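User: what does the whole thing look like in 3D?
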Amino acid sequence: MTTPMLDVRGLKKVYSQGLIQKRETFRLEADFTIKKPQIVGVMGPNGSGKTTLFELITGSNRPTSGTVMCAGQDIHNVKYRSRDRLAIHYHQSYQVRHFSKTKPSFLLEKPISDYPMIHLFDEPQFNTQDGYIGFMLDFFKRLRAESRLVFLCVHPNEPFHVKIMREICDRYIFVQKGAVRHADTYDALLDDIDVKDYLGALARY
Amino acid sequence: MALFEATHLHKRFGDQVVLEDVTLSFEKGQLSGIMGPNGAGKSTCFNVLTGHYKPNSGTVTFEGRDITGLSPRLIAGMGIARSFQIMNLFDEFSVLENILVAVPQSIKRSFNPFHDICGNSEAIDKAESILARVGLKGKENLIASSLPYGERRALEIAVALASDPKLLFLDEPTQGLGADGTALLADLISELKRDYSIVIIEHNMDFLFSLADTISVIHWGQVITTGSPDELRENEWVKASSLGEVA
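Assistant: Here's the predicted 3D structure for the full assembly of 452 residues, as structure tokens:
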């Protein structure tokens, strides 16, 4: 049996408020395995937990429980600065986030790779005017051909966003209110009534 | 062997990766372009190539010699000249004086503090031929700050040419130029292209597509594609964009 590219096991992240009486404000749960290099399309409303999921996979945010194995290595046991050798998060341009560091680095492992195995693109700027979009899509395909796993998070608000997701992705993840759902094809994804609601008029494309 | 090669460059600022596995090569006699959206890492890449930043790993070679981590001064001394996105001119001095301080014929004698570089006829001849080359003939005695923007840009290129570079790096030369200025600059560069090996970083795709022999597209600190302008235009999204219409 070969090692899966990504193995997310019983992953849970709970945010709560209040010191004495804790009140849960947000909960994200995920449990899935991706065996082969693929392009995974990620969609979901704002605040549904997409970026939190990406942060848990890249090890910049600590899970409440569960593990994330990237190419067989537990990313939360890797030295902070080297975690991007396993999984790298290309942030939305306005986001500046920092690692939550709880252990001294010398207690942590070295990464097994020199170049990121998992690439997570968080809402890349797609602009049809300048043509860069074509080079970006080719790059995602090249990464897949070079045995990397690609996550592409898009919040569709134009028909061409849907076209891209439909054409380029091998499977889909839909995140809503902290719950992660999976679909193997775009049509299967659309069978989900919540996805249809989310896409609204764009579901026709 | 290419004139200039960068292999597997990796550069980070703290937790942030700014260059990831960048491999580029620039051939002698060619005009190579580096293109990418804002914040893609173009200028960081240029700064690593010209020695202003040291890469965390990877190598840079020029004429087969490893120049990784050498100072900008040493790299310039080997025959690599560069212009900056923000202009670097001596504003209070004349056009001719700006060139004179850069020509080797005057630098050679400049250790003598009593030596007047403006009295060195060899250096002046050289400076005037460079000014003619960039279209600034007859403007030798104007003060640099009095020149219109496009001519200041040409003067900046002239300063870079004064050292007889084997490779010329230009960082966003169209920055701040209007359509007319950009067209004039394109004429100047296509003329210089015949005699110099040039690398241009540019945000303006039309400008680069009309001049370059090869283009590398940088995004997320990585080279996401490389090819001739014709090869890049094959892409269906490029065909559908404003760039496709120009082609």
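In plain terms: Chain A has five helices and ten strands. Residues 37-63+79-98+105-204 of chain A form a domain with the Rossmann fold fold (CATH 3.40.50.300).
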